[in-house]
């Protein structure tokens, strides 16, 4: 890859050399037939253990599906919501955390929408909408829009006094900052952003404390305890853990690359990754404010992670121009530009961006 300034991490991260090698290993193992499948299982288990360490859970708490959108849909199906029930979402959610719930309205389920204030959604505003018929609160740990970090631990602590489950989307945080499954009921994530893998894998993690009775609305051979037994044409039994949500074979190419990338994150130390990201993001915010930009991301370190957003009416056009003319990778659109810093970025990347923006 040509030399560039990669601040596109909230969309996807650059390919890692070690991930390329992991892909090659996967293809080599396919030549081994059944022996290759044995190695696939070993790498898969290693990935589950890596993810478990990153989310403060157990390997059995982690299901491997196709993407975060599928994970969310599987949970929506499992809730078996009825007319009169309600779910709570907010105006800083990505469409994957909105669309499945809008379909529920056809069945009499109410979708309650929490508005953001200054690009942040508060726990108080979400809790104000919870009542005895609330079955689920859906929220992102870090907003894809503004980069604001939610105090989900406090939200979950208060939801424990209700019947509502917390579904936490950590797509914009896992791999950048610590995530705690014990402070949520359900955690979902994609593979190709801060976890530095490739497309084609989604994580669905269950905190068993309040999800033991949450059964899938579908069944696949990967989610049941036995395959070839006399009663297989009349009955089946789900796994008692998160694997019950798996259907068929997962994307092993993505499993191999994520096993490598999560191992790298764990070796580096997620606390160290967070310190670097938060400090570098603070430097970016400081430089943006100095240049007169309207920053949407909170200044306080505890309230943000790696996404730094600022207002730009022609965001998509500006991002495309910076890519074409200066080889700077950003996300632009929807009236803003988002620069996302990860562990491999440094102050030189920030200075390069600010220098170009100053001339715009």
UniProtKB/TrEMBL annotation:
GO molecular function: transaminase activity
Alphabetical list of Gene3D superfamilies matching this protein: Aspartate Aminotransferase, domain 1 (3.90.1150.10), Type I PLP-dependent aspartate aminotransferase-like (Major domain) (3.40.640.10)
Chain coiled-coil ranges: none
Domain Aminotransferase class V as annotated: residue spans: 6-353
Pfam families: Aminotran_5
Top-level lineage group: Bacteria
Key words, A-Z: Aminotransferase, Transferase
PANTHER family named in the record: BLR3095 PROTEIN, CYSTEINE DESULFURASE
Stated name of the protein: Aminotransferase class V-fold PLP-dependent enzyme
Species of provenance: Paenibacillus spongiae
């Amino acid at each position: 890859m040509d030399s560039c300034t990669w601040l596109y991490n909230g969309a996807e991260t650059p390919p890692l050399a070690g991930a390329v090698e992991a892909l090659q290993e996967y293809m080599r193992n396919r030549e081994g037939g059944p022996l290759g499948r044995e190695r696939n299982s070993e790498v898969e288990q290693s990935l589950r253990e890596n993810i478990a360490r990153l989310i403060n859970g157990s390997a059995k708490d982690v299901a491997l599906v196709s993407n975060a959108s599928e994970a969310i849909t599987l949970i929506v199906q499992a809730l078996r919501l009825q007319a009169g029930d309600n779910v709570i979402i907010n105006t800083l959610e990505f469409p994957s955390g909105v669309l499945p719930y809008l379909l529920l309205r056809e069945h009499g389920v109410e979708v309650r929408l929490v508005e953001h204030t200054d690009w942040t959604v508060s726990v108080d505003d979400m809790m104000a909408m919870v009542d005895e018929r609330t079955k689920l609160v859906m929220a992102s740990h870090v907003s894809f829009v503004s980069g604001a970090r939610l105090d989900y631990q406090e939200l979950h602590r208060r939801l424990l006094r209700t019947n509502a489950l917390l579904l936490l989307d950590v797509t914009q945080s896992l791999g950048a900052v610590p995530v705690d499954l014990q402070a949520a009921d359900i955690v979902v994530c994609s593979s190709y952003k801060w976890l530095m893998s490739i497309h084609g894998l989604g994580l669905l993690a269950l905190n068993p404390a309040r999800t033991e009775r949450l059964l899938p609305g579908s069944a696949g051979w990967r989610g049941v305890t036995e395959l070839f037994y006399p009663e297989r044409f009349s009955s089946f039994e789900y796994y008692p853990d998160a694997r019950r949500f798996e259907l068929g074979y997962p994307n092993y190419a993505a499993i191999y690359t994520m096993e490598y990338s999560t191992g790298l994150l764990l070796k580096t130390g997620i606390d160290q990754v967070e310190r670097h990201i938060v400090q570098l993001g603070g430097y970016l915010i400081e430089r943006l404010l100095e240049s007169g930009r309207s920053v949407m991301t909170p200044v306080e370190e505890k309230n943000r992670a790696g996404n730094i957003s600022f207002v730009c009416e022609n965001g998509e056009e500006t991002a495309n121009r910076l890519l074409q003319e200066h080889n700077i990778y950003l996300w632009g659109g929807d009236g803003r530009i988002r620069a996302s810093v990860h562990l491999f970025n440094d102050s030189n990347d920030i200075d390069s961006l600010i220098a170009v923006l100053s001339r715009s």
